[in-house]
Amino acid sequence: MRKPKNFDVAILGSGSTAAAATAVARDLNKTVLLTEERLLGGTCLNYGCIPSKFLIEAAKTYFTMRRPRFDGIHCKDATLSFENLIQQKDAIIRDYRRKKRDTVFDDDSTFLARGHAQFLDHHTIDVDGKRYTAEKFLIATGSRPHVPEIEGLSPSKFLTSDLLTCDESEELKTLPESMVILGTGYIALELGQTFARFGTKVTIIGRGERLLSHGYEPEAGDILQTVLEDEGITVLVNSNVKSVSGSRKTGFTVNLVRQGKKVSLKTAEILVATGRQPNAGGIAADAAGVELADKGYVKVDEYLRTSAVHIFAAGDVIGPEHGNQMATPVGVIDAKLAMHNAFSEVGAQAVDHKYIPRCIFSDPEVAVVGLTEAQAKEAGHSYEVRSMPLSNVSRAVLMQHTDGNIKIISNSTNQEILGATIVAPGAGDIIHVVSMAMRMNAQLSDLAEMLYVYPSISEGVKYAARSDADSEHVVE
Prior knowledge:
The protein has 476 residues and is α/β, with parallel strands linked by helices.
């Protein structure tokens, strides 16, 4: 079927946010154009969630075979073929990519334009020389790895999380002997632990006082640092990288200042994991009257509408707007809302980013919902803090996996649950107990009195909720 030139809605991007918006638009009997200049499916499928979690699980299995937690179990003959793992990862990505294509383009109302998209005016985009018009637009171009300005870094052919890709040149197919990771956020920790468990000598470098120094409870970073160092990873916090030299062929030298002293590190690979930045700068947003924030995010109102009333945006590209978090499930929900708001005849609905659970898939996992203690204090809440070490949870003892903690923040006057952080095996699943409680306006006593499976890690939520408050913070 010949591709039309005019559509009801044009969506810039083809990731999870774009796919969710397409489904809603089609339910509303709208014609849809998606644009994509890289791999169909976006970051989560091709560079993030799917490949990283596969390799994380593989690394966990290999590591546990070599270092079993239980006396009497020995497995000295565990072997690793990293190349075979990469082939298996690629097969999974290609299968998911095929399924996404079949789902998104399963009728004659949805079309794909390959190439770089940019606005020419309020209702026209150019995709590699071909012009298309639409009544409405959704900007869902996502984000890309942020690269800090460090002398010698740009020409060095460093790695980013794009190394997890499939069918692109950035893909890393051989296991490096050593790796220096710049950054101490979730990408650095997940990939650092994964490569270390496969046998790479890993060094993690960050400028903050601890791992996860922004937006997480300090206990989470401290626990993970202890675990990672026990697994042989070198963690250098309070460190500032000044320059990089070398190449993959000759090896790299990373020069840094730590505690006032100059340090030089030799490494086979450098992985830059210093956060992500929006893909909004290259779409000529100003040609369509779309305003960008100082850091390059697309500005939206609470209805996900940009400064151009017929153009909406959702997903990573809107950054922290209205409490947004750069995560696939958030982009999916917001995309559906954006499409309803774009074509609604009964009024728009505002986004709700109050209860967003998130998880770092390290081992142990770190899961968070709501406010941390520091955020509760900054917001002016009168609050109480309750916590329970994982060593007091029977299931964790039986698993021989007691590195962790469960922390709950509650309002000291009405016992409203303000937030929680869980550091434990399976924390990403357990956090939904607290997330649902918060969504249903439950109180701390509801978590304390709920019936839990015994023995389970989830019981730690009950124990934390029942424990005495460590301290009460009253705002006058």
